[in-house]
Specification:
This protein has 480 residues and is of the alpha+beta class. It folds into three domains: 156 residues, 2-Layer Sandwich (Beta-Lactamase); 83 residues, Helix Hairpins; 155 residues, Heat Shock Protein 90 (2-Layer Sandwich). It has nine helices and eleven strands.
Length: 480
Amino acid sequence: MTPGAGRWRRLPLRVRLIAGFAAAMLVVLTGAGGFVYLRVRYALDRRLDADLTAEQTAVAAALHDGTLDPRNPAIVSGGLYQILDPTGAILQASPGLTNRALLTSGQAAAARHGPVRADLGTLLPISPEPLRVLATALPADTTPPAGQPAVMVVAVRRDQRDEALRELIAQLALANLAALAVASFVGYRLARAALDPVERYRAQAARITDGATGVRLDVPPGDDELTRLGRTLNDMLAALDTALERERRFVSDASHELRTPLTLLAAELELALRRPRPATELQEALRAAATDTAALITLADTLLAVGVQPAPAADAPPTDLAHTVEPIVRRYRNAADLPDTALRTDLDPAPPVRLDPVRLDRIVTNLLDNALRHGAPPITVATATADGWARLTVHDTGPGMPAEFLPHATERFARADTARTTPGTGLGLSLVEAIVTAHGGQLRCCSGPAHHHPQQDPVPCPHRGTGTTITVLLPTTERG
């Protein structure tokens, strides 16, 4: 980057816009003025050329008749003519043109082969005697002395034409300057009006950078680019606030849930080291510490899984829900040493879903853990299709959840009073809901006669009146 380009980029955007606009307008106005000037000059020159042609005809006729008298130039319109020999020397001329030839020797030689037009004197600076001349060859028998070829030159004054062009240039310059000033002022006002919302956005963003929360940009009504930018930035700020709140909740929940088991673990180890103990008691203390450590690791892993917003697997291949769920349930049944009657399946075919098997495994495993810990066998895992959705349900026949607890069932660490004596952290349903929602699905909890569905669901609550049913609705590849 050159130093000039660097300085240009450091200028305020408003200044650069006005400078660029003014430069473009200057080019346009200059081009338009030049076009007008050329057209006017062409029209004036045609008028002069017509006068020259008429004068040339009159001089040629007078020369042919022998009535051409330099002392009486009134026989021609302008009275300005010269007869030159091939070298450019004056043979005959009207009064005032006897001392200097109007053509150079080269122009005189060229006139023998065709008409030559030329302007003598400049438009600017002003010449004392501006002329426009026309030179043509004369037959040898009409030129004194007889038999000598010559060139006839006629001329008209350009004073009025040049004065008109100078006045035109002055008027165009003034008009262009006035137009440039007005256009620059209008451009400045437009640029200012266009960039004022951006400056307001910047000032409000600076407040947010300084730590202000809940601040949103003041977006004016309308649907132009800046208002759409403001709405997008407000959506981004809302997402950032949500992420920040989720992070704060995660830190608060993690510190709250980890503090108690860590304190118990430290107390157990301190008690074991307080006085000499038999090897059997030390082994028992170490086993208890190992169990607590494993529980802490599980809790930390679950906290991390819940704290990180799951990203939808947009590129995941289509997954057959029934065929993928069946081995997951079989593996869980074998690991938990449950009979077939305690953990049953009712897997009807369903259209494929965009959900990788790893996340589907986590969903099913968490739902089965929740049903086994807080419900009672038999537990039924079913798949089906409902109004264009793929449906996965896990139903147990336990005592169910209290109706007042259902709206909070998917919150982190939420546990019903009846479930506080059973193992668990209260994070399973929260993790399932996070995965399902990230993939465009819905999660619904039904228990006994009560039911809770955070989003509008296309199917009624099954198994109402018996135990607890957790329903997962996932969009199919056909639904998009």
